[in-house]
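> Could you send the Glutamine synthetase prediction when you get a chance?

Sure thing. Input:
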Amino acid sequence: MEIAPDAQRILDAGERTRRGERAAVAAADLAGRDITAVAMTWVDTSGITRTKAVPVARLEHAAAWGVGMSPVFDVFLLDDSIVSGRHAGGPTGDLRLHPDLDRLVPMAALPGWAWAPVERFDQDGAEHPLDARGLLRREIARMAAKGWSVRAAFEIEWAVSDGDDGEEDFTPACNGPAYGMTRISEVSGYLRDLLKALAATGVSVDQIHPEYAEGQLELSVSAEDPLGAADTAVLVRETIRAVSFEHGLAASFSPKVMADSVGNGGHVHLSLWKEDAAEGPVNAMAGGSGPAGMTPEGEAFAAGVLERLPALLAVGAPSVASYLRLIPSHWAGAFACWGRENREAALRFITGAMGERAQAANLEVKCFDAAANPYLALAGLLAAGRAGIEAKARLPEPVEIDPAGMDSKERSARGITPLPSSLAETVAAFEADPVLGEAFGEAVIDTVATVRRGEIALFEDATPEEIAATTRWRH
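Output:
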């Protein structure tokens, strides 16, 4: 259903018929593979993956007519309590969940099940204004209208614990040295089965390795279009969760699993591309005369992201627990600056190895974490980058050291500021940002801010240990 970037998508009779016919073919194929049901997922404003499922025999009807869902899920908090904003909340109303058949896939980690992300429409067939996936689709279209495309990928960090996730405590399932081979030996069967399940599900894994904190692991996937990247992030996490359960383990994607330990990041990788008639797709992050080899447009895209990081944290570091993680000298990117291969900068520029830079050069947003709704996070990043291109923005001087090692006068002289240290600060920046306000629209801005303030109130008197314990198993 190709439409203009700013047009509203509508499911008319012809589109419903087309979707139903296509789903009938897919359902027959799934049934032939002994698939019983399809889990249809969306990610709520708090970053939690919610679902409704249908038997395979009902997939055709679901594709054409949708499955009912209350709009109230847009204002669920992470503890399943509900707040109310100007555009969402209360017991009335209904939406329809329509599976995106382009991403329909059997889940190797859940035998007998398939998975598809959903698009949310109202009962009249109009796209729901709070549908984060639809918002990202529109931002991709707005970039394309200017001749640009973006390739993206999320790093997936998680901590694995012995026992099921009904327990409050966290007991690391591997205890070897950070990044040590010992950890792979401790959980080799688990990691083997995870990689096999992801390969069977069609996910292209670039690498997997032990991380810094006890029980912490990280997995990187190949870059793809932003909508595909967000979908893949959801699919990978649910595959990790399922394989963990199968091995008697529990996976936590929380920004802060333990109050006194390193948290899980949700780093986002981005590169800007333009089609060249002679050369094909060309990466604007390489081959230029700008900082670190960026082209002017690549630099402008990066500068647009950097300028709006304080506001973007409302969708990229969206939990109170996020600010227990976002602290200096922990590779979390706590300062609003950029640097070539600087893991303490909020925006790390990666050149790639000599010989493959034209393909590999990209930005890494290090201040985002695993509580983010990936669709909202990428929509915000694309809007910020697009605004940078339109303004022909330029980057400040790169930072080559840990900014925490500078004194405050030096940081001030170089324009290096700390990112917000609380969710309340970033919500205020988010609501005041004109670029995000225009891109997201009033309904999304108000709903995100309402949910964030609800979580702030939820944890108003909580200790870091209580925040970590409450958040640990929710994402």
